[in-house]
Amino acid sequence: MTALKKRLMFALLYDGGSFMLSRNFRLQRVGDIEWLERNYNFRETALSIDELVILNVERERGSMDGFLAHVKRLNDDCFVPITAGGGVRSVDDARVLLRSGADKVAINTALWSDPPLVAELASEFGRQCLVASVDVRSTAAGHRAVVANGTEELPMPAAEWLSRVAEMPIGEIFLTSVDRDGTGQGFDEAVLGLVPHDLPVPLIIAGGAGKAEHFVAPLVRGDVGAACTAHLFNFVGQSLATSRAHLRASGVDLVEWNPDLLRGLAGSV
Amino acid sequence: MTVPVVIVDYGMGNLFSVASALRYLGADPSISSDPEVVARAPHTILPGVGSFRLAMERLRAGALDDAMRSAIAAGGRLLGICLGMQLLGASSTEDGASDGLGFVPNVVSRFDDSDGLKVPHVGFNEVAVTERTGLFADLPEPAHFYFVHSYRMEEGSLSFPRATCDYGGRFLAAFDAGQVGGTQFHPEKSQSDGLTVLRNFLRA
Fold it and tell me: Is 60 exceeded by the pLDDT of residue A1?
């Protein structure tokens, strides 16, 4: 028996100083961090989630400095774990993310292009620190995993890739449905069916959340530990707080946080 | 007057999250790898993520193990977080057997996943505390904290206030041995319950 709680996660997609809305992995610029603060008041929003994901989705590889500065700033505003990633190609890339406030590092393309790096990262930071991000879309040949921001399709069925990733020294799998990404149509049950039944690590599902009810179906399943949305418009303002209350009322085992207590602790020593 | 806290930097761990949580509480954190600074610190936090063996090697190489002992001998308080708590124990089975700092006699071993338990243990879990004093003052019942780890400290038989968590069996989630305490969970990442523990550490 375990009392391990389910997790409601929020993902921010970063590109060149802006936060992005993604639909089927096509990106649209939404606003900068000031916009985010105005519309989300991040310190308040963070009281409604269990984990924050910040992904650098820049297609051109440049300096990480801007991204790191944003990770640091967001870290000051939330007391939940942060997973950061996007373009991690070396142990040093991971280290600077972890030294900028990230607790865990997401890796996606490198799982395919550089498996030895995965082993190196695990030995340096521990496998619990690695979130293996797998993007899956449906094709004429069935579900396939894609890497490099969805631009490169792997030459094997997605289920086979997920089984291989499950064998790697990683801590969690973050599974995104490209077909549902940003559509608000709900999570992709078909994609959940591709995951090995005896997956030895926790599973996070992403792609498709449009309203609070959408989180219920995956989160009441025994094999899903967390569900994530990156939809800045559907969950703007107080919407995450409302969603959280709705999920708890619907029987999803989330922790009930105490925002007043947290506010009261500010400057208390 | 703000409380000065030194966060030990030995190349492993999320130093900035701990620092920002301490700043939120109103403390004055600094990050240091200088053993002379650590040895004089009234409040020291030992964070840590990664391999137990590597962490011990780096602490010894930087003379930070002795510096923490000196700080405690001088009346200071030490809080180990995550791997930092494990390092306060006697030994760990990670990467073969390695000796820890030995502040508590407990040993660290991997979760048993033979029954299909998902390892690492990731997420918020319930924690039961023996007494709501010291580090555990004012915590709600139950309290929830964020864990992310594959190894854990075995419960052993401790006489001071402590907390346990159940994940495929009970393990030690936190202890408060007076000057030395530890949390397997991340108080800096556990919303109001976590910040309550950090505040308790700074108040003592």
Answer: no
**Range B69-93 average pLDDT:** 97
Q: Can you list the domains of chain A with their CATH numbers?
A: 7-262 (3.20.20.70)
Does position A44 have pLDDT exceeding 80, yes or no?
no
Interchain contact B167–A (C-beta under 8 A): yes
Sign of CA dihedral B200, B202, B203, B204: positive
Q: How many domains does chain B have?
A: 1
The pLDDT of residue A2 is 65
Q: Domain limits at B28?
A: 4-203
ipTM: 0.91
At A176-224, the pLDDT tens digits run 999 999 999 999 999 999 999 999 999 999 999 999 999 999 999 999 9
Strands A130-139 and A172-177: parallel
**Beta-strand pair B107-110/B170-176:** unpaired
Note whether A81 contacts B189, CB cutoff 8 Å. yes
Which of B 14-73 lie inside 8 A of A, CB atoms?
A: 14-17, 20-21, 23-27, 49-51, 54
How many CB atoms neighbour CB A52 within 10 A? Answer: 26
Residue B131 bears catalytic tag: no
Contact B80, B183 (CB under 8 A): yes
| Inter-residue contact B135 to B197 (CB < 8 Å) | yes
